[in-house]
Amino acid sequence: MNGTEGNAEQPGPAERSHRSSVSSVGARAADVLVYLADDTVLPLAVENLPSLSAHELHRAVREVLQLPDIALDAFALWLVSPLLEVQLKPKHQPYRLGRQWPELLLRFSDASDDDVAMDEPSLQFRRNVFFPKRRELQIHNEEVLRLLYEEAKGNVLASRYPCDVEDCEALGALVCRVQLGPYQAGQPTACALREKLDSFLPAHLCKRGHGLFAAFRGRGAKAATGEQGLLNAYCRVKEAVGTDGERGASLSPHYRAYLLKSHELPFYGCAFFHGEVDKPAQGFLHRGGRKPVAVAISLEGVHVIDSREKHVLLGLRFQELSWDHTSPEEEESVLWLEFDGDNEGTPVNKLLKIYSKQAELMSGLIEYCIELNQTSEPAAPQENVPGPAAGSPPPPAQRPQLRRQGSVVCSRLQHLSTIDYVEEGQQIKRVKPKRTTSFFSRQLSTGQGSYTVVQPTDGLEQG
User: Fold this and answer.
1) Hey, what long-range contacts does 333-336 have (CB within 8 A, 24 or more apart)?
2) CB 430 within 8 A of CB 419
3) What is the pLDDT of residue 31?
4) 20 to 30 A from 437, CA-CA: which of 71, 111, 138, 413?
């Protein structure tokens, strides 16, 4: 699985932790460095590093951090660099995969030879992309909650998780509570928050205009809105009250509140991939070109995110799409997404073409997520919650989260160039009625998948 580029001003997890590599550790070394979500380093003394499995190393991390058994499912080991992010299977051997990193980059990235030669992965202890959000809500251990909070916070601050301003302020207020303690009237002031605003809000919301021209453009007033909105949200953060009526010192309620708010984001817990899509033709000469995107895939669906504008271009649940991919042997490596839409009021099938050398990885991950969703057991019923009375009407459907007008998490199909097609008899024509057939056989009803994160055995170093 592959990571997106971080914001130019606020580095993402890959950039922040690109400091050391498993592959650079010699076979005789006794220590291996594992990076945690808060960017701290955990040195581990290990034996026989070249043959050490990810499962054994994962267990060593859990023992040092004294994490409960739930951490085995909640976290995974990742190899991460600015060019590629790979979640390791328990049987993978991090040292050997680190040695094979250049081959993986040549296969799954468009990096130049010089960039491949300079790139080096770090080993990170991060959230398992296959860990369901519903199980996250069952966690009570404060250190596990803290690690999940730190990772979510890093993704929000780096704009890997696009958020509306209101939600950035609500999340930033919880960070204020964790870092500054309970809100006290008059402390801090909006000016005090401004000094370290990038610790609470994404970088693109912290930009400041300077001088007379900025004032004329109204940027001064707009800039003040960020810290004032954050301060207003901070004062609304509720304090948890213990069983004895006292306000407890535990930060768990605030970590949990941050995660609950993050769960409203449809791409929370996703894996990121690099890609490009065609721009809509514009101007007299109908020039288009391509724009860089991040493809975010989670257990819930697929989101295509504009890497520069930090907003969603397309969001689809697995029930709403069909997909396939073409390999470099056939033509340019492409992930195809097919979904229902309309063309000037006529229902059509739409095809989106995502150019990416990770198309094979993305297709495999989609298939495996669908398989997990189909085979997973239903969520356990909540205890001590009375059910509806006999004969009472069913409860209203839950209102979708984050569907404000112009929300950054809403699809922007007008910014995409898609192929619209119809089927008439045996012929496929562009622009058509609602989908009854598909170009692709790979849909939600697909059979058992066999997702493999990396396949280093074919032509890659094994020693």
Assistant:
1) 333/357, 333/358, 333/359, 333/360, 334/359, 335/275, 335/295, 335/359, 335/362, 335/363, 336/439, 336/440
2) yes
3) 81
4) 413
Contact 61, 54 (CB under 8 A): no
Asked if pLDDT for residue 102 goes beyond 60, the answer is yes
- Name residues whose C-beta falls within 8 Å of residue 462's C-beta, 6 or more positions apart in sequence: 96, 456
CB atoms within 10 A of CB 368: 20
Gap between the Cα atoms of 313 and 306, Å rounded: 6
Structure token digits, residue 39:
């960017």
- The answer to which of 35-39, 181-185, 358-362 has the lowest mean pLDDT is 181-185
Query: Which tops the pLDDT comparison, 247 or 150?
Result: 150
Please give the average per-residue pLDDT across 257-278, as a whole number.
Answer: 95
Beta-strand pair 41-45/85-87:
unpaired
Q: Of 81, 97, 93, whose CA–CA distance to 12 is shortest?
A: 81
Q: Report the C-alpha gap between 19 and 179 in whole angstroms.
A: 25
Q: How far is CA 64 from CA 42, 312, 382, in A?
A: 9, 39, 33
Return the ∠ at Cα 411 (arms to 153 and 358), rounded to 5°. Answer: 70
Q: Is 219 exposed, middle or buried (0-12, 13-18, 19+ CB in 10 A)?
A: middle
* Cα 208 to Cα 460: distance, rounded to the nearest angstrom: 49
| Size (the chain), residues | 463
Residue 276 β-bridge partners: 292, 355
Higher pLDDT, 174 or 385: 174
CA distance 80 to 106: 15
